[in-house]
Amino acid sequence: MKLKRFLSIPILGVFLLLGFVYYITIFIFIEDWIGLQNSSGSLNALIFTFLTAFSIFSFSVCVLTDPGQVPSSYAPDVEQSGISDEETKRKICDRCATYKPPRAHHCRVCRRCILRMDHHCLWVNNCVGYWNYKAFFMLIFYATIGSIYSTIIVITCAFQKDWDFNGHIPLKVFYVTCGVMMSALSLTLGTLFGWHIYLIIHNMTTIEYYEGIRSAWMAKKSGQNYRHPFDLNAYKNITLVLGPNMLKWWCPTAVSHLKDGLTFPVIRDNS
Ligand SMILES: [Zn+2]
Ligand SMILES: [Zn+2]
Q1: Residue 259 to residues 13, 81, 91, 263: CA-CA distances in angstroms?
Q2: How many A from CA of 135 to the centre of ligand 1?
Q3: Tally of domains within the chain
């Protein structure tokens, strides 16, 4: 049962954090800043509720979607052209004892090979691979925007408050703690989001980024230039992950553009 994937301590932690941030942002800070009984306060609460709902939706899709299993019938197409030495088409996973398609990797936690594996994510209790990478990316997109939104509200609320009254020390500590916590969360999520924008623009997975450093070093030693074989062009790379229709980019389940995850266009194919 896939729902069992939710039964993990990090996932529980994510939900607790989400619930806490949602509660303090709406019922403490927006309420204190402009109040919830007027159109401006309600609008801010509504926007933040949407961001939280989309974060939870993307998170759930990421947890529940199988990242990509290598079909038992898979065998590399010997005639297939355009696969570099790095992505050797006859690669065999010594743990699964089966052929491993290009960009697939063996995950020690999942104990199987995952198509276009990015990394195994403790926070979603799942591998991030071919079928759930878009959901993962949309999760960090909504979570980053939501976190920055909350940080701005907390800081704005703290600055407009009249702190002259000496009897509110615990409240001051609470405001400062929330401000620091939300700033740190925004910085962490923002860095992760920026990192994955970089990876998407270059059509790389986290694993391929680190492999690329080694390949570039090897190529340099032999006087050659290394280029990531799947890096077509920035726009094409983005559409390969998010889809060709920009109107569907926001939706983590809009993945009809994905094919089988066994073959990928490479630079030589891209005329
Ligand atoms: Zn394997
Ligand atoms: Zn895994």
Answers
A1: 34, 18, 21, 9
A2: 23
A3: 1
Burial 27-54 (b: 16+ CB within 10 A, else e): ebbbbbbbeeeeeebeebbeebeebbeb
Distance 95 CA to ligand 1 centre (A): 5
User: In this structure, is residue 98 part of a structural domain?
Assistant: no
Catalytic residue among 62, 113, 121, 127: 121
Q: For residue 91, how far is its CA from the centre of ligand 1 (angstroms)?
A: 11
- pTM comes to 0.91
- The answer to whether residue 178 is catalytic is no
Q: What is the pLDDT of residue 271?
A: 44
What the block records as the tokens of 165 is 């009254």
Per-residue model confidence as pLDDT tens digits over 70-127: 998 888 876 555 555 555 545 789 899 888 999 999 999 999 999 999 999 999 999 9
Q: Is 261 left (phi over 0), alpha (psi -120 to 50) or beta?
A: left
Asked whether the beta carbons of 147 and 183 are under 8 A apart, the reply is no
The mean-pLDDT minimum among 44-58, 70-84, 120-134, 144-158 falls in: 70-84
User: How many whole angstroms separate alpha carbon 84 and alpha carbon 6?
Assistant: 39
Which residue segment(s) compose the domain that 187 sits in?
1-67+125-266
* Domain membership flag for residue 75: no
Residue type, 101: P
